[in-house]
Amino acid sequence: AQSVAQPEDQVNVAEGNPLTVKCTYSVSGNPYLFWYVQYPNRGLQFLLKYITGDNLVKGSYGFEAEFNKSQTSFHLKKPSALVSDSALYFCAALNTGGFKTIFGAGTRLFVKA
Amino acid sequence: KAGVTQTPRYLIKTRGQQVTLSCSPISGHRSVSWYQQTPGQGLQFLFEYFSETQRNKGNFPGRFSGRQFSNSRSEMNVSTLELGDSALYLCASSLAVGRRGTEAFFGQGTRLTVV
After folding, report:
1. Per-residue confidence (pLDDT) for residue B42, from 0 to 100
2. What does the alpha-carbon distance between residue A8 and residue B34 come to, in Å, rounded to a whole number?
3. In whole angstroms, what separates CA B24 from the centre of its chain?
4. Is residue B82 within 8 Å of residue B15, measured between CB atoms?
5. Residues A23-63 pLDDT 10s
6. What average pLDDT score do residues B50-73 get?
7. d(Cα B25, Cα B29) in Å, to the nearest integer?
8. pLDDT tens digits for B2-21?
9. Using the beta-carbon criterion (under 8 Å), do A100 and B42 form an inter-chain contact?
């Protein structure tokens, strides 16, 4: 079965420190990969995506993600965390030609001032 | 341009009743997907519609159904509601799921509470 795993339920980081939210996937072929963020009582917002090409993808609000094909990972990163980055983050994968995006369980990020 | 609009935002229903949720996608988007979000199960895929056709369906019972109209607006129906159906139901639209990895745009969701 195809799946997306986010091994950490919660990540805690101090403001100004770098952050990493991990994601690994098990999807056939060369999937498209996405990161979304969800703030309380809101829908998900698109952050960035990997389709092909450069393994480092830059997205909104200073976030970036590193694609590693051999490790089937797509970790979300930010050099300097802000308190306002505290939210729920979802990794997602879509196999090429498919119509169903598979989401991870989500990782809650807490950034402490 | 206007985002994805879901109505209503909040609903309280009684067990055994049925409910219909509505989603208006971003103008020009032809694909609409529905998801159920609960604290325990995360984000679960319900179904996806494109040009009024259901192209994919998740592992939900037949009580969950949907449809898409010619203007791409979509509705989701849940019959014979159960307490476990209490969740945030999210609708997402995109130009065309699977087409060069187009991202989804989500509505704010409908919070359904079954009592």
Report:
1. 82
2. 25
3. 10
4. yes
5. 999 988 888 999 999 998 788 999 999 988 889 999 999 99
6. 94
7. 6
8. 799 999 999 999 999 999 99
9. no
Point out which residues pair with A43 in neighbouring strands.
none
Residues within 8 A of A (CB atoms), B 30-49 only: 31, 33, 35, 42-43, 45, 48
Q: Do A32 and B101 touch (CB under 8 A)?
A: yes
Q: Which amino acid is at A67?
A: F
C-alpha B94/C-alpha A75 separation (Å) is 24
Cα–Cα distance, B27 to A56 (Å, whole number)? 31
Name the residue in chain A with its Cα closest to that of B44. A103
**Alpha-carbon distances of B81 from A112, B7, B67, rounded to whole Å:** 41, 18, 18
Q: Give the span between the Cα atoms of B32 and A23, in whole angstroms.
A: 25
How many helices (H) and strands (E) would you count in chain B? 0, 11
| pLDDT over 90 at A110, yes or no | yes
Of B83, B68, B64, whose CA–CA distance to B22 is shortest? B68
| Residues B53 and B45 sit within 8 Å (Cβ to Cβ) | no
Q: Which tokens sit at B63?
A: 């009580």
Q: Which residue among A45, A100, A103 places its CB closest to the CB of B48?
A: A100
By the 8 A CB rule, do B112 and B13 touch? yes
CB–CB contact A43 B108 (8 Å): yes
